[in-house]
Structures are given as C-alpha cells and as structure tokens.
Design a protein that fits this description.
Shape: globular
Oligomer: single chain
Order of helices and strands: HHHHHHHEEEEEEHHEHEHEEEE
Radius of gyration: 21 Å
Largest sheet: 9 strands, mixed
Number of strands: 12
Strand order of the largest sheet: 5-12-11-10-9-8-1-6-7
Number of helices: 11
Strand content: 15-25%
Structural class: alpha/beta
Number of domains: 2
Helix content: 25-40%
Distance between the termini: 35 Å
C-alpha cells in the first residue's frame, strides 16, 4: 500500500470511529502526498524508510502518536493550542497549519516513534472482554486465571474492577470504580441476572513484545499519546484505568505470543482464560498458526475441573463476503464450540450482544 492510500484509509477509519480531528489531519497529509512537491516534502522526509510499511502496521497512527507525545510533553510549540487533550480547542485550519509546521521544523522529533507499533491499550474494549467472562461464568463457577497476549500496559487485566453501565442504565461491577463505561452493552446483554456472579480473577498475567509500565511517568505518557487527542471520553477512561493500575500494579512480561501460549497449562480448580483484543494483526502468519495450534492442544487437555477458554476481540468476517467487524468470539473447553457473542466498536463501546 502506498503512503497516500495508507493515510487516506486511516483518515476514513478515524472519521467512522468518531475523531473528526484525526480524520481531517490525516486526510490533509494524504492530499499533500498526492499533490507532491513542496507541500509534501516535509512528510516525505519524515516518513522516509517506511514507504513499504503494510497497512496493518498503522504507520499513520504511529505518526499521530509521535506528534501527540510532543504535544503532551509541551515540545510542540503552538500545536497544543488546538489539541483538546491538553485543554486546546480544535479548529481545522489552525490545527493543520501548526501540525504541518511542526513536521517541517522538527522532523527528527516527529519521526521518533515510527519504529514502534501503537500501544493503545484501549480500556473501552474491556466492555466486550468482561462480557465474555460473564458468559464463561454461565458455564463454570470456577475462579479465573487470566492470561493476555498483546497486553501493552496491562490495563484491561483489571477489567473486573471497572463499572459497566448497560443501555438500561443499570450498573454492573464496581459502582465506585474510576473507570465507568457508559452504554457498555446493548441488546439482551451478557448474563447479569440476580444469580449471575461477578467474575473472580484469581491470577492476572500480561505479556507483550514491547510492554509498557503503566505505573511510570513514561508509561502513562506512551499510553496517553496513542489515544486520539479529540476523543476526550477515551482519555477519561484511560486516566481512570491508570489510577487503578497505580493501586494494583499488573506487571506485563516481555514475551511473544508463541512463547506465552507454549507455557500455559490448565489449572485444576480454575478456568484458564486466554484473551486478546485488536492485536492479532501484529503477529505474522506463522506465529498466528502456532498460537491457534497450541490453543487446540490446551482445549483438548481441558476438563470440567480445569477448563480452558480462548476469548478474542478482533476484526474479522463472520462469513465470506461480509465486511470485517469487531467480533467477540469465545471457545470454551471441554467442548470447544465457537460462539460469536457480540459485535463491538473499534474502541469497544458499545457492545451489541447477539
């Protein structure tokens, strides 16, 4: 995919996901790259060496995260005037002029994060993941040993400590949590009746090839920088999750998905849940195949006393010819039936229960 197409495609995605600011900025970058010449030159210089980056590498979001980090560090001159994340007010023409000027005048700083994948750690996706835990609880009362691949800062490992408000205004989970996901579930919703116990997470284990220490200043900066600057609701959710992480640290081990699943074994007296959200695209095909093969082995070894579940929220097609959507899919062993539980938005909320 060429650079213009990559940036234009990401601009369209940002528009559909509720960020007019990023949609406009990335669309203007795409326009500049299409025209070429003097207007394109600063972006061509900053993006040099990444021209062949595949679409899933999210090069456009890497650039936006790198620039947002400069804004958060007060290293972006007047650009912060237009960034709501630091109290600014977005206005298209002024923001674009300042954005383009920063890229032209500080190319080294603007490209500093292009070699690292976005570390979003989107807290809103916990609405889907926790709904999956509730569905697992409908089949087994055992406590959960939670294992996550692609954990980033490990914030969603604390999903059982968030508050979830369904489309009827009912609050589930911890009503006093600093993380409140309003409108989390639509439709019939997951199993939350009077006989439905809240998930008990007995163990949390996170892994990532580039883990972020959420309890540190550097880690908080990284996670905040990758939230789109005009999406204040997402930023508020993140701040609440960072508060929880400071109270209950969830260290994330630096290890790849293949190595992680190779070391998982069912635990008697607990349900082992392997989950992940919007990270599958960052694994190459060989690693994906190895993870799938190992989950099948774990499923075959599961028993009623030591069940195993694979819970994933990833963009996929439910049937050939359908559009890719963010589907929450559960496989629970013994049995191993594939269950398409719910459709989610890219950033998690709301989750449309099927």
């Amino acid at each position: 995919m060429d650079l213009e197409s990559a940036f234009r495609g990401q601009a369209q995605a940002c528009a559909s996901l509720g960020s007019p600011m990023y949609a406009d900025l990335l669309g203007r970058v795409a326009d500049a790259l299409a025209v070429g010449g003097e207007e394109a030159e600063p972006f061509v210089r900053v993006l040099a060496g990444h021209e062949e980056a595949p679409g899933p590498a999210a090069l456009a979001l890497r650039l936006m995260g790198s620039v947002h980090r400069l804004v958060l560090e007060r290293r972006a001159g007047g650009l912060g005037t237009w960034y709501p994340s630091v109290g600014g007010t977005y206005e298209p023409e002024g923001c674009w002029a300042a954005f383009a000027a920063l890229v032209a005048e500080e190319p080294g700083a603007a490209r500093e994060w292009l070699d690292r994948p976005p570390q979003t750690n989107e807290v809103g996706r916990a609405a889907a993941l926790t709904a999956g835990l509730l569905e697992i609880g409908r089949h087994t009362p055992l406590p959960v040993h939670l294992v996550e691949i692609g954990s980033s800062g490990g914030l969603n490992l604390l999903a059982d400590r968030f508050a979830y408000v369904d489309d009827q205004g009912r609050v589930h989970g911890d009503p006093d949590s600093p993380v409140r996901l309003d409108g989390a579930w639509t439709g019939p919703g997951p199993w939350t009746g009077p006989d439905a116990p809240w998930p008990v997470v007995a163990e949390r284990r996170g892994t990532d090839v580039m883990p972020v220490e959420a309890a540190t200043t550097a880690g908080r900066l990284t996670l905040t920088a990758y939230v789109w600057a005009d999406m204040t609701g997402r930023l508020e959710r993140l701040r609440g999750a960072l508060q929880l992480a400071a109270e209950t640290p969830t260290p994330v081990q630096e290890i790849g998905a293949r190595a992680l699943v190779a070391g998982i074994e069912p635990v008697p007296g607990a349900v082992t849940v392997l989950w992940h959200s919007v990270m599958w695209q960052y694994l190459d095909r060989a690693e994906q195949d190895d993870v799938v093969a190992r989950t099948e082995e774990l499923g075959a070894a599961a028993t009623d006393e030591a069940p195993f579940a694979h819970l994933s929220l990833e963009p996929r097609r439910r049937a050939p010819g359908e559009d890719r959507e963010f589907w929450l899919v559960l496989r629970l062993w013994p049995g191993g039936e594939t269950r398409w539980l719910a459709r989610s938005r890219g950033h998690g909320v709301p989750v449309d229960w099927q």
